[in-house]
Amino acid sequence: MKDGKTRGFWVLVLATPFRGRAIPFHFLTYSSRTIQQEATSRNLYHFRALQGLKALIGEKPLVFDREFSYLEFLLHLVAKGMHFVIRLNLSHQAPIFTDSAGKPVELVVSPGEKVVQQGVWYKGQVRVNVVGCWERRFGEPLWVMTDLNPEQALPIYLERMNLEEGFRDMKTLLGMGKVMNKSQRNMEQVLALLMLAYAIALLVGEKLRDRLFCGAEGQQKRQQYSGLFLLLQKPVKFSTHELALALLDALGTFRNLVLCLVPTHV
Question: Which of these, 121, 141, 231, 232, could form a disulfide with 134 (CB 3.0-4.6 Å)?
């Protein structure tokens, strides 16, 4: 915090992809203090985030960054019957993979190359597929493990990397990084309002972008601005009528998203 003494909170956000961004639908917060008070660990917050997700997403895979590449979390996903794509954390100690004969599997990939290891065992307990690549735009190799076809999993994770832009928007355009409530309850209320505002602004901004930059002549400008930036920063002029139409379109999209998430009963 600003006082240089009070520690902040971690925010674990669950989101669904939308046009290269992410629409948040749930979040949890925790800190070193709350973990100590509850006699628990950060891992349990990770597990808690998965509660009820299977009924909501069905067979859709969950995509996680490298801090989730640990055995207990992987076992929890398998027990829940959830598909996963998880980036491996190779910064400290490489995960231990073995083949069906128990021999170590090394993860080595050269720049411009892609390597696939199918049916290997993670720490001898979970059978996974592993795929790695080293694209020229990356400063280091990218490795993911999954229960999906590895050729399917890598593009899914690469899409997740684009979603970081959405979280960057929340921090910069909406000021998420400046939330400084010392009370966890108050902080969570502010975050909930911020994420709701972000989701609405994203939907409206994208519909506005569709209307302003339609056709071949608008493609170049379309690539310059995200919908959220267009709505909040207003680098391009738009009329009240155009905004009203974008709001109606966004409402229709929101209804469709909700209907997709609500289970139907026969």
Answer: 141
> Considering the entire predicted model, what is its pTM?
0.76
Q: pLDDT 10s per residue in the chain (266 long)?
A: 666 666 677 888 888 888 878 888 888 887 766 555 555 566 777 887 788 788 778 888 999 988 888 899 999 999 999 999 999 988 766 668 999 889 999 899 999 899 999 999 999 999 999 999 998 878 888 999 999 998 899 888 888 766 677 778 888 888 887 887 778 888 899 999 999 888 888 888 888 888 888 776 666 677 777 788 888 887 778 888 888 888 888 888 877 776 665 544 33
Task: Label residues 205-226 b or e (16+ Cβ within 10 Å = b).
Answer: bbbbbbebbeeeeeeeebeebb
Give dist(CA 142, CA 133) in Å, integer: 5
Residue 75 has a CB neighbour count (10 Å cut-off) of: 14
Q: Where are the domains of the chain?
A: 50-172, 191-261
φ/ψ of residue 167, rounded to 5: -70, -30
Residue 224: both structure tokens together: 């310059």
- Angle of helix 184-212 relative to helix 150-172, nearest 10 degrees, comes to 110
* Single-letter amino acid code for the residue at 122: Y
In this structure, what token pair is assigned to residue 228?
A: 């959220």
CA distance 258 to 219: 30
